[in-house]
Sequence to fold (787 residues):
Amino acid sequence: MRVALFVTCLVDALFPRAGQAMVVVLERLGHEVVFPQGQTCCGQMQVNTGYQREALPVVAHHVEVFEAALRPVSEGGLGAEAIVAPSGSCVGSVRHQHAMLARELAGQGRAGAGLAGRAEAVAARTFELSEFLVDVLGVTEVGARFPHRVTYHPTCHSLRLLRVDDKPLRLLRSVAGIDLVELPAAAECCGFGGTFAVKNAAVSTAMLADKMRHVQGTGAEVLTAGDSSCLMHIGGGLSRLRAGVRTLHLAEVLAGEGWQGAR
Amino acid sequence: MVGRTFLGMPVATERGTLRGDQPFPAAARTALADSQLRRNLGHATATIRAKRAAVIAELPDWPQLRDAAAAIKTDVMARLPDLLVQLEANVTARGGVVHWARDADDANQITIEIIRAKQRRDGRPVDRVVKVKSMATQEIGLNQALADAGITAVETDLAELIVQLAHDKPSHILVPAIHRNRAEIRQIFADRMAGVDPDLTDEPRALAMAARAHLRQTFLSSTVAISGANFAVADTGTLGVVESEGNGRMCLTLPETLITVMGIEKVLPTWTDLEVFLQLLPRSATGERMNPYTSMWTGTHHGVDPDGQATSTPDGPQDVHLILLDNGRTAALADPTGRQALHCIRCSACLNVCPVYERVGGHAYGSVYPGPIGAVLTPQLAGMHATRHGQAGTTSRTDPVDTLPYASTLCGACYDVCPVKIDIPTLLVHLRTRHVDGLRTRPLPTGERAAMSAAAWAMTNPDRFSRAETALTAARLLARLQGDHTHIRTLPPPLNHWTAARDLPAPPPETFRQWWTRTRGGPR
Fold:
């Protein structure tokens, strides 16, 4: 299957290894990965902070880039059958916010009437990594080996917006050599919340402290999750404490031990 | 007396009921430092969460019940004016009196006037009333208004009594004294409850018995009671209160005059609608399968003899009043997205699962409605500064109400447990949008808006975006200057709020798209 990568702005700029690992996993499973180079960001930061009008052109740009990726090559597209992203949160935004925002701003005469429908069409083909592997490809065994003690944090948006349920855990359990340990109070938010981490830094830190305590209690060497944003938050706290726990995106664990970053 | 308001206008009530003294982030910082509070809340919310989860798992049709409740509430909001008129007609036909209050002052004045009319009729003063736990009367600051009129309001709900004796404020919708533990409650009783046993222990039973002894004489000697209502049934004129202690029922049955203050959104079309809510509410609220004391009353009654014939003996209050309260609700109703907040049945399940509430408690929200539901209800009832309903002397940055929609990580735990399926995360984002849009008319854009516009400008063009990313890699230098090649440990404001507790990874030498272009050339 030809798969278009929606790498997300955060992974692109700060965590490219998560994107590279996704390419490694998908190619190892025999799929062709394409990267629509016009892509930038889903606009979630603007939407969630209340800047709907600023988000609109970002959303329109995202829709335009990815509907072109889905178009057949004969019509000038990339011929992708699906769009895959290393983020539950960004896919949540595409699926739950894009059409809603387009509709609301169309009602105010600020957006064209067609955008909502086009956003829905793109959203219907957009998947978070674990959803794509388990639901679309029907795969739980990705041929990886990772001999480390790992704990998994289910990020809020993959859990409660996308309902990925135990799909990431099923993928992780199939990794050879892994010592997967359960994270206590796993479903509780880590306190990131986008601009919340800055606007309500004290509460965010209090939530982070509890999340770190649970992570450290597992004795894990690696904390993994399906969102680089939450990992940046928890990992930033663990790094500050010199806790000796590293954070890796789910894709990096699924790429496996031998993979040291695509060159 | 403040200027009169009109229907549909959010109300700026006095500080202490809906609008706090401090912006949420500042109030939260203070609360976070209270170790006793953190411990009490963590323990109490974890206990209620577990109880709720267990009893909800028992019901196979829970999702269908939630769908039914959401559908009923949506229908109610769509025809609220008609249902209220129908309710008024049926309450009146059964001997009750219905009053309409546009705001808190109105409702308080109506209540005081009803009590004064009774005094005039009876020819003896009423200087004390008993109260059933009620959010509506907390919202309007009724106890203070009564005190100003020389009338003492006695809270009969155990937790409300604890709060009242301590001259404290409720910190939870359902469990007003959730921020107190047994030892603290024992101390409050020992200090403030007249005639209490000095050897009182902090055993829950002993504390309950002390409250019972304290309240019993008050019940028997009070002639006026004030309640809220969980529901009103339009087609029968029935009012209902759901409570756990039986003290509410004593208030509802013993006194001669009963005054009920109810938000207009509480009306239900028919009696059979109760079937849905009486299953959802106790399981969501206290984690009980069935509510212990569910009291329903329809107008006034006379006794019934063994043959079922009405006698001339009065049964229950003969002077029954219903005050229908707007206080900003029609303003919320006018917002097609925001009105969902009016579906709330005050179960508090969202408070108990909220990671923010669990850490800061209810007082930090500055409103009688704390937690996730409070963060979406309060700004609509009280109005935000940014939408020109603020308190004098504040700004859209410092008005406590304007900070409430931002008091959430949007984790979604609240939406998952809401028995009437209020999409609180979407409402929070909606109110943030109203807040931001409200500020657009100001002459100068805020720094945040400038930053968001600049980011959007970069994000609508891949070349600009790529250049912005390249500029970001300059931050690698920052990490190096701070003696660390992998992490940035301090940043200037406002990002210093991030680096106060967390490192930031130094930008990588190569972005993903640079790597892709270097290794693959084109899109493939």
User: Anything to note?
Assistant: Chain A touches chain B through 75 residues (CB under 8 Å).
